[in-house]
Amino acid sequence: MEKHIYDEQNGLSYTLVGDYYLPDILPPQEAVPAYGKYGKLRLQYLKEHKRVLYTSMLTQGRLTEHLNNIDKVATERVERLVELMKVQQGATEELKAREQMKWVGLLNNIRYSAEEMVLKELIYA
Q1: Which residue positions in the chain have pLDDT lower than 70?
Q2: Tell me, what DSSP letter sits at residue 50?
Q3: 17 pairs with which residues across the strands?
Q4: CB 96 within 8 A of CB 103
Q5: Are 70 and 38 in contact (CB under 8 A)?
């Protein structure tokens, strides 16, 4: 028996495995994972709370691309929000020079607030 055959009726090729010919079907190849903190959080959320969406994106080969995109957008949005909130709340270099601990506390609060907003609207949606 031949190891590989091609069926012209359905356009599939088959490989002999034991006594059976199995179709040579592979899921679509995914992009290279390049996501960071926010991509990992989104992945965990999808696995635990959106199982059908996770499985669908995984089998269609779109999961890694989605996670890379979410990570990029979330990182950019957090950075933009932090810069806007720094201006609004007066976290300037002058404050940093005068009252360093107050400036650090203010920046930590700004960073956590910005991350919380992004997590709510992008990661856990």
Answers
A1: 27-29
A2: -
A3: 20
A4: yes
A5: yes
